[in-house]
Write a structure and sequence with these properties.
339 residues; 13 helices; 83% helix
Length: 339
Amino acid sequence: MEFLLLFIIGLGFTLTVAWSLGANDAANPTQCAVGSGVITLKKALTLFAIFVLFGALLQGSMVMKTLSKGVVPHIGFVGALAIVVSIVLWILLCTWKGMPISTTHTTVGAAIGYGLIAYGGNLNWNVLSMIFLGMIFSPLIAGFLAFLLYHGFKSLFTKFSSTEKAEQVIKYLLIGSLAFCAYSFGANDVGNATGVYISVTEEFLGIPTAQTMLLLAILGSIGIALGGFTWGYRVIRTVGYEICRLTPLMGLSAGLSNAIVVWSFTTIPALVYGWGLPISTTHASVGSVIGVGLAMGLRTIDKKTVLKIILAWVLTLPCAILISVGVFKIFSVLLTFMG
């Protein structure tokens, strides 16, 4: 009975992680469309919720497996609880400040902190090295691709017979890119909320891994959608408006670049190595916005906002590690005392 209660509490924290992901990362798929004025925030978040669910159900398992068994050998109940509590603490703090930090950094950092204490650093460094490379290259690729897409689309739409027709086509394409971006986000980021809890849920319910991941993907999608609707506007304001002012064409280029990069890092490594790569969707999103900003000229970018975001990124990994170490030690002491 006591373990059932603790299991339910753990699921509650997992749902809270998903909520905080939606609150902080709803900006990633929606900021381009909202920032460029093509769609209202409410409509954008509705599309976000629908396509996040599709992405999580159809491809979420690719990254969930990586965060469940790819970073540390095994995540037990105390470890899973410590990780999700650590994730919630750091993301809520940064979201309250309106900072689009990386939830992937937070999740990986919390898992590393647990692994350092529980396994003495016996982590899967091959997978971690791939994740670290993704952290570095995903925003660079997204920025470069957004830069190219902007110039390509600009050249294409200047050939239209009228400006009004070109603008109408751009608006429809921008909404489509929002849906694709939300789908990619669901496929990649639902693992951040639920991946570390797969082993515990599988062992407790006694069901196959595939069914466990499906149930957790549904739970994670619900939490992400709720987070987007309740607090997501705080970060959307920062990314969609403060880095640089987005025109519809800039929004299309940035949104499509972000979607392509996130989907590619999720899908291609899973097909080749069997592990989807949990990249920072925030990095890819901000990188794509900076890319189109550079296409318009360096003066269009708010450098202070970019520096503030970079500072949060730098602090996230070490802070998540330290918080996870502290929380895991506290939980271990409490359980020993209670036992």
